[in-house]
Amino acid sequence: APVGGWRVGHAYEDGRIRLMLALWVEHLWHCAVAAEPAPAGSMWCLREGRAGFRALAPDEARARLAELLSWYGQGLCQPLHFFPRSAESLLESGPAAARRTWLGSGGGVRIRGESHDAAWRILMRGVADPLAGSFAGLAQGILGPLREARQ
């Protein structure tokens, strides 16, 4: 619902990257179909704080949606090397952090890596290094605009 020029919503979840991607697509949709002027932005009240995105011009939002739909189409034909948590770690802290997020950690308190997910194990079987090749480009292409628009 619009409040003071902002779209406001809520989700009783924390701000994990999968939720942020879903909210990003919703935000892009609303910006893409908005009559000029676009809303000031979108804001969600989450279980552990707030998340929001600045408004985008309708043409820019449509271009971002087209990029995402293109990757979605590619992903329907063959697995994309895009792993949300590892991609977020790559953009925030670099390749070593992405690899830790992908593999997890050993030791006394074991943190499961994204690679332990059964779906990723099946999709990436036979792939020597899922974080090589197109991973970094997809991480930047998919999460870069989201990160730039976050408020």
Low-confidence stretches: none
H/E element string? EEHEEHHHEEHH
Number of strands: 6
Shape: globular
Mean pLDDT: 87
Number of helices: 6
User: What order do the strands of the largest sheet run in, or round the barrel if closed?
Assistant: 1-2-3-4
Q: What is the C-alpha radius of gyration, as a whole number of Å?
A: 17 Å
Strand content: 15-25%
Biggest sheet overview: 4 strands, mixed
Q: CA-to-CA gap between the ends? A: 18 Å
Briefly note the structural class of the backbone.
alpha+beta
Roughly what percent helix? 40-55%
Structure description:
This protein is α+β, with helices and mostly antiparallel strands and 151 residues long. It is 51% helix and 16% strand. Strands 1-2-3-4 form a four-stranded mixed sheet, with helices on one face. Strands 5-6 form a two-stranded antiparallel sheet. Helix 1 (17-33) crosses helix 2 (58-77), helix 3 (84-93) packs antiparallel against helix 4 and helix 3 crosses helix 6 (135-149). The longest helix is centred in the middle third of the chain and has 20 residues, at 58-77.
